[in-house]
Write a structure and sequence with these properties.
Layout: H1 2-19, E1 33-36, E2 43-60, E3 66-86, E4 88-98, H2 101-104, E5 118-128, E6 131-139, H3 144-147, H4 160-165, E7 169-180, E8 186-194, E9 210-218, E10 241-254, E11 256-258, E12 261-264, E13 266-267, E14 270-271, E15 274-287, E16 290-301, E17 305-307, E18 313-317, E19 321-331, E20 336-347, H5 349-352, E21 357-369, E22 373-384, E23 390-400
Antiparallel strand pairs: 1-2, 2-3, 2-23, 3-4, 4-5, 5-6, 6-7, 7-8, 8-9, 9-10, 10-15, 11-12, 13-14, 15-16, 16-19, 17-18, 19-20, 20-21, 21-22, 22-23
């Protein structure tokens, strides 16, 4: 409650500052306030967004019908965003706060049992040429679908591959650089050194550290409006645009079951540690309303089964295995869109005890003001070997200021 009150006080301070200055209210979807200091040494854009989600699911009955219906409605995301520059346009910053229960959940002794309200708090310094140094907490340079904002997704939410194998936000440093091989061929390099335990851990480093490297190749040049990290081809690219990329992540002496996510692994002497490696290979293609995204993930661990000092197993297991995610869609000129996604998850059943699963998703979206105001619905069929099939329906309204 104290954190929420402090957040509200901060927002009120922003509004009171705005009243005392001349401001031009931006158009819808470009933030609520755009402030620039009188001496042009700082700026701040303040925005808010919300996702309201309704869902229902059914199990396949023994005679072929769908039984045991369950439904749920929730505020999936409710977030506040602040970004701008300080002192110089070469020194930028971003703050994002999550206020929904799902965003703040996951508190533990390592977060001092406080709600995990802070999503991003990062400074970005363009210190020389095309080099930019990031410092703070933000997303690691992982697979495309994870780095795409939850407000810019092609379907209602991310895939099973992302749920099983993604690397998430963490605290640390990132170095980013780009250069051109030719007039159009763009190459981007991203490196990260982070704590390795995920966001909002405040008790110091618990295991080793996390090292992430990503290489992105754009042979036909940049996408419009950062379309390589946005679902659907809303820009209707006039010429083909392609990004081919790969990420390799090493979480040395990791203490959680999904690298910097999942449950903490305990044993008789404290936290169990093992090195976890994650590989991503992915691609994004867009042309005249058509889009395609493909991702492959593979996760291994030095010793995936947590053990006590005497060698007995604790019951905690690293989520090792691999997955494939393929998604394609088309945006009509009316801004109605269709999309299809296939996700194939192959856990190492000998270690995890979890069976292979396939999910097929078909979605329809209406983009009223791009991703800033949209209605999305999709239906998914989940097939897990040896388990009951599940049918899932979702409807979501997305509003961004």
């Amino acid at each position: 409650m104290r954190n929420i009150l402090l957040t509200l006080a901060f927002i009120l301070t922003i509004f009171s500052t705005a009243i005392s200055q001349e401001t031009n209210a931006p158009i819808f979807g470009k933030g609520i306030l755009n402030l620039v200091g009188k001496d042009s040494t700082w700026s701040m854009k303040f925005g808010a967004r919300m996702q309201f989600l309704g869902s229902a699911d059914w199990e396949k009955g023994p005679e072929g019908g769908w039984i045991n219906p369950e439904s749920n409605m929730l505020i999936r995301r409710a977030r506040l965003k602040f970004d701008g520059f300080a002192f110089s346009p070469k020194l930028k910053y971003k703050i994002e706060l999550g206020l929904s229960n799902r965003d703040m959940a996951g508190q533990s002794e390592f977060t001092r049992n406080a709600p995990r309200m802070i999503l991003d708090a990062v400074i970005m310094w363009n210190f020389a040429g095309n080099f930019v140094l990031w410092a703070g907490q933000t997303k690691l340079p992982g697979n495309i679908e994870r780095v795409i904002s939850s407000g810019n997704l092609q379907l209602v939410d991310r895939s099973l591959l992302n749920a099983a194998y993604n690397i998430d936000r963490d605290i640390g440093l990132q170095l980013r650089h780009h250069f051109n091989l030719s007039d159009k061929f763009l190459v981007r390099e991203k490196f990260a050194f982070s704590q390795g335990e995920g966001r909002n851990v405040v008790l110091g480093n618990l295991g080793g550290h996390q090292y992430t490297g990503r290489l992105e190749l754009l042979p036909f040049g940049k996408f419009k409006n950062k379309g390589d990290y946005s679902g659907s081809d809303l820009e209707r690219e006039e010429k083909p645009k392609l990004m081919l990329s790969g990420t390799y992540d090493i979480n040395s002496n990791a203490v959680r079951t999904r690298s910097n996510l999942g449950n903490f692994m305990y044993n008789d002497v404290g936290l169990y540690e093992t090195t976890i490696n994650t590989l991503f290979i992915d691609a994004m293609f867009k042309y005249r309303g058509f889009s395609f995204m493909g991702e492959y993930a593979n996760r291994t661990a030095k010793d995936a089964i947590a053990k006590n000092s005497d060698g007995t197993e604790t019951g905690d297991i690293v989520n090792v295995g691999n997955g494939l995610n393929l998604a394609a869609g088309y945006v009509f000129k009316s801004n109605w869109a269709l999309a299809f996604r296939f996700s194939d998850i192959n856990p190492d059943v000998g270690i995890t005890g979890t069976n292979k699963s396939d999910q097929y998703t078909f979605g329809i979206s209406k983009f009223i003001v791009g991703h800033k105001l949209k209605v999305q619905t999709d239906v998914s069929f989940l097939d897990i070997i040896g388990e009951t099939d599940v049918l899932l329906y979702r409807l979501q309204v997305d509003l961004h200021f």
